[in-house]
Amino acid sequence: MDAVFGLHLTALPVGVVGVRPGPMMASADSFVATIQGVGGHAARPHQAVDPVLIAANVVTTLHTIVSREVDPLQPCVITIGTIQAGTVPNVIPSTATMAGSVRNFDQETREKVAKRIEETVIGIARAMGGDATVDYRFGYPIMVNDPEMTAFVKSVALEVVGPDKTIDRTPLMASEDVGRFISRATGSYFNVGVLNEAKGITIYNHNPGFDIDEDALPVGVAMLVRIVERYLGE
Question: Is residue 232 packed enough to be buried (19+ CB in 10 Å), middle (13-18) or exposed (0-12)?
Answer without folding.
Answer: exposed
